[in-house]
Amino acid sequence: MSSTDPQNARTGRPRSTEADAAILEATRASLVDLGWSKLTMGDVAARAGVAKTTLYRRWAGKNELVVDAVAVLFDELELPDRGSLAADVQGVVLQFAALLDRPETRTALMAVVAESTRDDSLRVRIRDSIVDRQKRLVLEGRQRAQRRGELPVEPDAVVADRTADLIFDVIAGAVVHRMLVSAEPVDTDWARQFTLLLLSGLGAGAMERRPGSGPQTW
What we know:
Layout (H helix, E strand, L loop, with lengths): L16 H18 L6 H8 L3 H7 L3 H13 L10 H16 L2 H14 L3 H29 L8 H25 L6 H15 L3 H4 L9
Helix pairs in contact: 1-2, 1-4, 1-6, 2-3, 4-6, 4-7, 5-8, 5-9, 6-7, 7-8
């Protein structure tokens, strides 16, 4: 687990799981009600019913606190075996969309992403605590599909890592843009069409190997 996980962020007296959950929930509620600029550690402490010093024993400041409040929401995502790669992808897309549809997720994610454009350390924390942790879904899904024979095994570890990054970027980017930028729904029909488009590129690289296709133009 990432070193930025709130359970491992500090040493000292034993942590209270209940207190951590209350603080992170209060942080998300504060973001929805107040927005990033008006959110303070004091407001979060009051909402959570803890002393402000309790927050600072756990998190160095607002950036760390808000990212962890968002990260635990994304840790809810799962990838149960639905029997095929297409079903697995469609299922996680719909699950991700349902998570983004929650006001606390949508508000918190947009707030930290916007703030990270002005704060390099916050961008790194988002990558470590949210992006890298959620790539587990891509790795799990790809390994499962390879065992089924639906995807080829990539023997080159560097290439395999690059492919995993690309898959994650395509799925996460498409769903986030659809819901948070275009403000359009991600329903079953959209998820199915997106999955078909994604898998047509993942399966066999048909456009590159099609006989007589000639050079690609873009």
